[in-house]
Amino acid sequence: VITLPHSVNVYAPQQGFVISQYVKVGDIVTKGQPLYEIDISRNTTTGNVSATQIEVINEKIANAEDIISKLNHNKEETTISLEKQLKTINDSLKETNHMLANAQAGLKKMHDNLSSYDKYLSDGLITKDQYNYQHSLYFQQQSTYQSLVSQKMQLESQVTQLNSDKITKIADFDNQISSQENQINDYKNQLVESNANGNIIIKATTEGRIESLAVTKGQMVDKGSSLAQIKPTGDIEYYLVLWLPNNSIPYVKPGDVINIRYAAFPSDKFGQFPGKILSISSVPTSRQEMSEYTNVTNGTNQQELALYKTIVKIENKTFEYNGKTLSLSNGLKAQAVVFLEERPLYMWMFTPVYKITQSITGPIHD
Q1: Has this prediction a pTM greater than 0.85?
Q2: Number of H helices, E strands in the chain
Q3: Rounded to 5 degrees, what angle do the CA atoms 102, 108, 114 make?
Q4: Which residues, including other chains, have CB under 8 Å from residue 138's CB and lie 6 or more apart?
Q5: Fold that domain 49-196 belongs to in CATH
Q6: Three-class DSSP category at 218
Q7: How deeply is 240 buried, as exposed, middle or buried, from its count of CB atoms within 10 A (0-12, 13-18, 19+)?
Q8: Which CATH number fits domain 2-40+198-230: 1.25.40.10, 3.90.79.10, 2.30.40.10, 2.40.50.100?
Q9: Model confidence over 70-128: pLDDT tens digits?
């Protein structure tokens, strides 16, 4: 007898021992709810391997986080220093531009005045020395102007260089920080793996009722050991899985009604129960699939026959007996009476004769 959905068996994924049990038989659990905690770590003379690995990895993570904190501090200090230098140079550049504008205006004014001094000299209003002195002032002003132009270009070059240095240094800090963050992520992955090699939580794979618990706290388990069985709750349908031999397949089809006898409910007390065939496999069932059903009889005769998996819908899920209500459960063993064909009694009597006749008949030609 099976249910849809099936009952779920929970197995241990690795060898270890149970350190915590979170549920008891009869509890209703939800999918993902913890059932057991199992310690799968290894211990040596120096201590627990997983715990030591976790401690070392946590130290690496702490060191990397400390490096990131220092890098962020240095990045901030470097940025502030470069901003101060940029402000100083920009202020100097602003002042230089102001001085350059004044020098240019003065130079233009002096250049305009020189043409007047040429006329003053020709008219005898000024001496040659005065004239030369004005030209000397003009050339000095021109030299000052050129010096300011050169200073402006130098300051602009410094601003460009500082901006470039700022971008480069910040990018360098960001790269170092990213590298440390990547290392932290690697350490966290190692931490997850180390935790997985320490304690693991066994969770319910579906919602339902805890039918049985195979182990208790402190008990050792091997890989594949059964831990718990969960019976689904809600609207559950019961079905019977039959294994029909190949000589019965021509006489059985979906929709046929059969009689069911449960091993747990003897037919002499409870009688037989009806069932309806839902499906019949078109290919023989493999031995691997049959081995999954622990209550299948693996007799020699059955192994020699090709068996076909048949699903039967069960009509009665509960039974009344001596004032008690009895229910079906997953895994019950049952036998079924399958009605193949109807023949007159004399045909059954002559069946051996038919077989002998077929054996001595020659080849059949179309």
Answers
A1: no
A2: 7, 18
A3: 135
A4: 107, 110, 111, 114
A5: Helix Hairpins (1.10.287)
A6: coil
A7: buried
A8: 2.40.50.100
A9: 999 999 999 999 899 989 888 888 888 888 888 888 878 777 777 777 777 777 777 77
